[in-house]
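Q: My labmate handed me this sequence with no annotations at all. I'd like to see what the chain might look like in three dimensions before we decide whether it's worth expressing. Could you predict it?
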Amino acid sequence: MKKVRFWAVLAIGFMSVMSLKAQSQRMNEFQNEFSRYQAQYRDLMYNGKHKEAMAPLASCIAMLDTTTIFKVSPIPEAAIMEQKGLLYYDYACCYALVGQKKQALAALEQSVLLGYKDYNNMVNDNDLRSLRKDKKYLSLLAQVNDRQPLSVLKKSAPYAKDAAQQDILFRYQPKESKNLRMVRDYFKLDSVVGQGDELSKIINLLHFAHDNIRHDGGNQAFAELDAIDLYNYYKTTGKGVNCRQLAISLCEMYLSMGIPARYVTCMPADSLDYECHVINTVWSEQLQKWLYIDPTMDAWVTDANGTMLSIAEVRERLINNQPLVLCETANWNHESQQTKEYYLETYMAKNLYYFVCKKLNRFNPESLYRNNDPADDVRLIPVGFVNNNWKCDTTTDPEVFWAKPE
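A: Here is what I predict for the chain of 406 residues:
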């Protein structure tokens, strides 16, 4: 049985677009009814009433097929399809458990057609053990395996030289600027970085940001997008900030110490997948390269010899099955430890398909409330990749995108 995610798939989309009172009321009514069927399904499965559990599943699918709430809410089609795919997967489990193999395979096929992609769950799910030797099941399993993030990344096209974009120039606000000096003094960063070498200073700043600003991927902080305001937002409200806001904060801390840095939006290949991740790339004079730095997870990555890697190197090593070592500190809010298998080979493999950065890296780079026009974006994509979700300057040349800071 698929881990219960009935409402989670749709909730974010609904809540982000339905702000009017009438729409909120309709949303609440829809959610309550959907949750009621969900609870019925769980109770029946828990009590071994697998055949009876199909009825609330059917009701959930009927709600998604017939409700008109989607007409007033621009819910991503992918979220609706994913939800239905999960429901049909559980249908398959119910049929398999009551010995109706033909119906189980038909429901599983429908789930896969709707985009089901949890290979590990499907291959290990004991509810489906009666299907495991069936040729159709094995064919569907192969399709799901082909959708794994690492499989998708490995099939990406290569990069290529791009003479038309050779004039793209990334800029970095100097540490002497008034606002960056304010960041440096406010957080007492001279003490934070310590007296070690450059790499230890880079890591100390990473730990500081991770330890002092909580992450909450579902929250858009009501604050200016600078390190000081975001830190005070968290300390005042107790609410965390999203990965973009956390990476912006750390980027400013690096810049304030004279260390060139950018925050990098790491994007998936699927244009209907709106879940990305934002991390930092930090220039090391010591290693003469950019480094992969993730403040959300307090993470960096090395090769087998302990040499810190760049974002580009992590991506390339994933594609080529080369050794990667995730630092021991990698964690989420000091509550859950990260593993290389999930964090790099699943989560980041999905989000390392293409990248977006600001041309100008500075204090408060995306102000929502002040007259501070955002800098232009630049996107690095594989050759032939088509996705217009992010309209900006585009290059296929990694040497342009990852150029050494001037």
